[in-house]
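User: Please fill in residues for this 669-position structure.
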């Protein structure tokens, strides 16, 4: 019987291995740059054509390779980094598996030109698709130059799954930038055919390197970290609590010169910022851990990006404590979650910026006292707002609320009215009195059909079909009137048969979204020119996204002008932007588009921008509203195309029927 199992030939094995090591062009760049670093290079130049598929070239001034080593370098599991598995506990290099060059050579045309510093001439070695290589003597500077052409030429399926040219180049620039942060003493240069994307000096100044990648204005705000534990040293830069992003894209973690991914390190960092920054926002950091290779394992994945640690709990505690103490010492900021005194009490004997911290003995308000004080402030604001309403409505005849006989009692007033002063109760009209019982004249928010429903209730009838139809109709919300505000976040409204809880922010967001969208569609988009242009310093990925979608942004009304490396002048914004800080909105817009990791169309970008504007223009949770403001909000919500969800899909209203309440209280069985 013929054996069903057979050994793959080396060519097939290399192409399979290439699928793990060389996922896309950025993988090639990472492996070649790490080889250059292991060779002791002080200057590394990276050149990219388009998205990296036509050509990738990495030049360095390292120690070079001899003629004997050149053919061995492209064989699988051939390496100069280790001789046995025991060497991993003392590993000082970035590479060690011996798979990178073999995998790259199997899916491209690979050319290596190298000369050791002691030799007069260099050697060129060229091979295609992992085949036989050709050696020849050439003249070249000391060091090594590796050129990869026609990447994935023999694996068309891999080419099909690559993203756009700008996206792939953005990933390359992001990776090279992170490696540069791990090696500030090395001079890096990344070039595209049309531009030099960035360049670092190699002077060993991490803040200078951060400035080349994220912009000088951001780098100047960063705080230096340097701490030592028994097993680890932590150094790097972290952002102050008021410099945060919506994603973790601007976080870089490094171990002994290696850029790594680690949810463990990310969680320890976030714990250090807890109570200092809002939830779902993330700091900008470049943190470098130095320790013994025996305390961690990078041999988890062929890309050597993932890492595991031995004593995770001790390391997490060290990182969290270091971050938190560094933030407090850099600037004595109160925690957002507790009073200033409790934050600084443990730091009373330390020196901050050369001056001792002074603790002011102010009385501490308990949560109960603070809540009571907040209620008093809300009550005073409500009295001031409602007094203006009273002047307008004082001439109207006060009428008793109209209720059906089976209700048993009138509608309860809002909590704010219960707690308000006697004078306020006397001047305010009854909240359920939206039409006069004397003459039957209607409030503008109530239609004749809805009056008929009300009269049926007074007669003791319950036309449930009519009621359900009114609620399901998008414009039927107009028959509801507000009876109060809950937690200064939710509007309570009723039509005497149904109780609605309306999220005031979500409802206003829906109103603003449909209004702004209609304005964009109704006319040709215009720009509002800024009196003083605003400079924007972008990250490498943000800049590539901006370049790729520049024409779409212009169609939307943005006017941008390049003003240097990764710097643009914002000269104009869409007219709908209003008075909001244009640069902050545009940066947040770019971050949200990058977060989706997809190439959006014009309509998608337009909707993302409108989402952002609608959210910024909307009232917030905790905003106190008067009854007239609530009434107007309900009326405008009833006129929208979809009044039941906000643009992000969250519900704007929750319905509780009278029948559901009666079942809850066992009034009906």
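Assistant: Residues filled in for all 669 positions:
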């Amino acid at each position: 019987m013929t054996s069903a199992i057979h050994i793959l030939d080396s060519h097939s094995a290399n192409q399979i291995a290439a699928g793990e090591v060389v996922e896309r062009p950025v993988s090639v760049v990472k492996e070649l740059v790490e080889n250059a670093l292991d060779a002791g290079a002080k200057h590394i130049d990276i050149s990219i054509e388009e998205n990296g598929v036509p050509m990738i070239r990495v030049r360095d001034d390292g120690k070079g390779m001899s003629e004997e080593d050149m053919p061995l370098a492209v064989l699988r599991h051939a390496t100069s980094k280790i001789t046995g598995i025991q060497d991993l506990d003392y590993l000082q290099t970035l590479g060690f598996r011996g798979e990178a060059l073999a995998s790259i050579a199997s899916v491209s045309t690979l050319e290596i030109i190298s000369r050791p510093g002691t030799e007069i001439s260099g050697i060129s070695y060229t091979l295609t698709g992992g085949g036989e290589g050709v050696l020849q003597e050439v003249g070249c500077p000391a060091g090594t130059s590796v050129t990869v052409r026609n990447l994935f030429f023999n694996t068309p399926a891999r080419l099909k799954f690559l993203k756009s040219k700008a996206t792939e180049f953005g990933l390359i620039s992001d990776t090279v930038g992170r490696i540069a942060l791990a090696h500030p003493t090395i001079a890096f240069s990344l070039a595209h055919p049309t531009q030099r994307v960035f360049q670092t000096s190699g002077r060993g100044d991490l803040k200078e390197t951060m400035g080349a990648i994220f912009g000088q204005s951001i780098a100047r705000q960063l705080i230096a970290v340097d701490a030592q534990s028994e097993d680890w040293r932590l150094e790097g830069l972290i952002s102050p609590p008021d410099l945060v992003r919506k994603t973790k894209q601007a976080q870089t973690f490094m171990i002994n010169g290696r850029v790594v991914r680690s949810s463990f390190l990310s969680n320890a960092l976030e714990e250090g910022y807890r109570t200092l920054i809002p939830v779902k926002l993330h700091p900008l950091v470049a943190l470098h851990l130095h320790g013994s290779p025996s305390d961690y394992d990078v041999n988890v994945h062929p890309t050597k990006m993932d890492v595991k640690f031995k004593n995770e709990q001790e390391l997490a505690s060290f990182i969290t404590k270091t971050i938190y103490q560094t933030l407090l010492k850099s600037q004595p900021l109160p925690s957002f979650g507790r009073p200033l005194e409790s934050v600084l009490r443990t730091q009373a004997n330390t020196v901050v910026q050369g001056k001792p911290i002074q603790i002011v003995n102010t009385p501490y308000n308990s949560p109960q006292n603070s809540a009571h004080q907040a209620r008093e402030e809300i009550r005073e604001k409500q009295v001031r707002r409602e007094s203006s309403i009273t002047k307008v409505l004082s001439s109207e005849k006060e009428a008793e609320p109209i209720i059906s006989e089976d209700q048993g009692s009138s509608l309860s007033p809002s909590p704010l009215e219960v707690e308000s002063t006697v004078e306020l109760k006397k001047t305010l009209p009854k909240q359920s009195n939206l039409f006069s019982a004397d003459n039957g004249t209607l409030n503008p928010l109530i239609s004749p059909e809805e009056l008929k429903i009300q009269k049926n209730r007074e007669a003791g009838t319950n036309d449930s079909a009519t009621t359900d139809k009114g609620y399901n109709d998008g414009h039927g919300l107009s028959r509801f009137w507000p009876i109060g505000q809950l937690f200064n976040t939710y509007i309570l409204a009723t039509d005497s048969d149904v109780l609605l809880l309306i999220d005031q922010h979500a409802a206003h967001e829906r109103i603003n979204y449909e209004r702004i969208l209609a304005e964009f569609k109704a006319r040709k988009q215009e720009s509002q020119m800024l009196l003083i242009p605003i400079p924007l310093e972008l990250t490498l990925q943000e800049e590539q996204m901006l370049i790729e979608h520049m024409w779409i942004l212009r169609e939307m009304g943005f006017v941008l002008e390049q003003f240097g490396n990764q710097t643009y002048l914002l000269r104009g914004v869409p007219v709908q932007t209003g008075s909001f800080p244009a640069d902050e909105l545009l940066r947040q817009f770019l971050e949200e588009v990058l977060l989706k990791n997809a190439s959006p169309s014009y309509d998608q970008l337009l909707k993302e921008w409108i989402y952002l504007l609608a959210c910024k223009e909307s009232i917030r949770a905790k905003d106190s509203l008067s009854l007239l403001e609530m009434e107007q909000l309900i009326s405008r919500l009833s006129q929208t195309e979809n009044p039941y969800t906000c643009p992000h899909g969250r519900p704007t209203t929750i319905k509780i029927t009278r029948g559901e309440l009666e079942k809850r209280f066992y009034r009906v069985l």
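For context: The chain is about 40% helix and 20% strand.
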